[in-house]
Amino acid sequence: MIYIHAFGIHNVKPEKNPPDLKAVLRTLSGKVYRRIDRFIQLAIIGAHKAAASYELDPETALYLTSGQGDIPVFARVRQQRYLQKMMSKPVDFVNLASNAAGFYIASHLGLNGTNLFLSHNDFPVQMALLLAQSDLELQKQSTVLLGGVDEWFADQELSRKILGVNESTKLGEGSNWMLLKRDSEGAIASLTIEPELLDLSTLKERVALVGAAVRLAFSESLTATVINEIMGLRADHKRFNYEKFCAYYETLPLFALNLFLSRESGELLHIDSDGERYMIMRVGRPD
Amino acid sequence: MRYEVGSVMKGSQDADLKMRLKMMILEECEKTADIIPENVPDTVRLFSKESGLDLDSLDALSIIMGLQQQFGIRLPDSKAFRRHVTTINELADFIQPE
Amino acid sequence: MITILGGEMLCALGDKPQRLTALRTGISPLSSVKVNVGGKELIYPYYRIDDGSRISDHTIVTGYCKQIVSDLLQQNFTAGPLALDYSRVGLFLGLSAIDYSLAWPIEEAVDSSFVSRCRRERVGGGYYLASLRQTFGFSGPSLTYNTACTSSANALLGAASMLASKVIDYALVLGLELYSPTTLEGFALMQLLADSKARPFAEDRNGIVLGEAVSVCLLSRDDIAPSKWSLAGGVSACETWSVTGTDPSGSGFARVMRGALAKSQVPPEAITLIKAHGTASELNDRAEMRGIEQVFTDIPPYLSLKPWFGHTLGACGVAELLLLKECVDSGFIPAALNSTPLDAEFVQAPLAEKMVIDNGCFMLNYFGFGGNNSSLVVSKAGS
Lengths: 287, 98, 383
Description:
The complex is a heterotrimer. Chain A is of the alpha/beta class.
């Protein structure tokens, strides 16, 4: 078990155009940054919300996880090269290295610890948290600032295709962060990532054992049938509905957990799926 | 847009050319929010501390690209650029020797 | 203790006997590549796995990954892959490119029909491991690392964590770097590429030579699968001096080397040899040497492996570990290649003569864009 000491939510449901983040970042941090594209702005905003008011140890590790990463800069560079037949800016090439985002967050927050850019097709949040849990429990790290960043990409049709989601899915964007420690003192909540990828029957066995006070949250990838089956296991389980506050992006599970922390107390069980197997995360917030 | 050499004066005497250069540099280096072109000195080395521009090697590359795209000037080596093209006046004379 | 059981790789040097021959003889199979820089086609030296096409079909990329994983499993689990509990195997991948799976259509044809032609298929950095999970049936955790030149070195450290915390019993750690026009154009535009050879630590060095590699390393714990080789420890840290460069004082590099020694509980004098990052860029080479001088009173023998098969960026973490391991397992470490005349600023030259050695404690350095620095310590016990 590890502990959440701070968190930050940046979650948007853009309609037509993605909101201008430069202004948001300037208001938040009072600084003007050059060379950073929108994905990096998004990353800094979320990390700032989670950690700027916290006295961070410079050795704090930064784990940034994402579904697609900075796809817009990649698309921009290729379009300039092949369609507009012009050279891309050197700055764009630098930002193609995904870990540029982590570099700018580290500069912003004064960090010089481990700095990772991680991804996973199905469980970007759980896998990154699993690494953080291992590193904290082994005392390889004393503090991990972990965030999920996914940017709303203007080409919605292309976005849906490369995300593998259907045409009616509404897309959003977010940068949701947690400050994690092994130490419980002063913590907001506890967090446990179950490392096993469970099949449905094992998942049901686990959920049936969970106490009545626990709320259940489901990721977008669970079908309504499965959700109904799980909710039907015990009459006393209640669902935590975060869905109305967001549109789809791949690191939504962090938003779900953080939203729970900002609004509720008690325990939350979050269930996610890759279509075949399931992963469970538990957050416990004292009343 | 390519800068058309319309005048016949030496670059360092051409206020219009120098203003365009300064604007290009500030734009390429994303410094327009911090510095106005009038405050970019003509005779101080651009890559020195004294210029107040705080430029690094990535800025050198960006300026080289700006020179290429806006002024049609090819400067292949960023190190040579940082060593040789030292001030706005020298850069202007390089673009427009007379 | 984290054990290193074996590895497999595809690189310009060929198969394992060919790799060892190249390392023994100092012959490197340098090829070339065309790079479009601002509308002009330039030719740069390049190390390629083979002459096959790359970007026309992204299944080629997954094909390479599947091939080496399949070879590695066959070599290490003679009872057949079924002898492994696949839910206890973790997959880790380091790559520098944002995404080859998306790269191919965008790089080949960006036009208005692209979106309609594009398949509805989840792509992204996690694509390759998802594909391996599907092919082989691995059902343990997996994670893809995108931290430029330290990507697969950091993946090794992540795998070591999950092994140590007993989340998994085995880890397959992959490093992947294949031809990508975007990467090559970026390096050319940034004026980082050499025009002939990679000459790390040499006075007349003039830049990096890039190369391809697909590499995989099998790790475990000594209670599950003992081995003479172990990953003693390592540290990855970020310096915020500059997004593209490092503090020339070498302080950022020194910090991770010191950290790696401390985490591994190995004193500096116990290091047999340093596998330097040695990209042959002046800033990197000099900062690395300054870092080494700060950490080691007596500088151990050192060399860069990049003159043999290029800078394989995201793959070099695993690929260079495997090359070093193959050499030591064959009883030698080659003399440094292309490193004379020595940079006048250096007091000690890289390894001048072949070292006869079959065990030892080795430091492996990896430094990358975004201030991302990693240093690992691996050791092989004597018989």
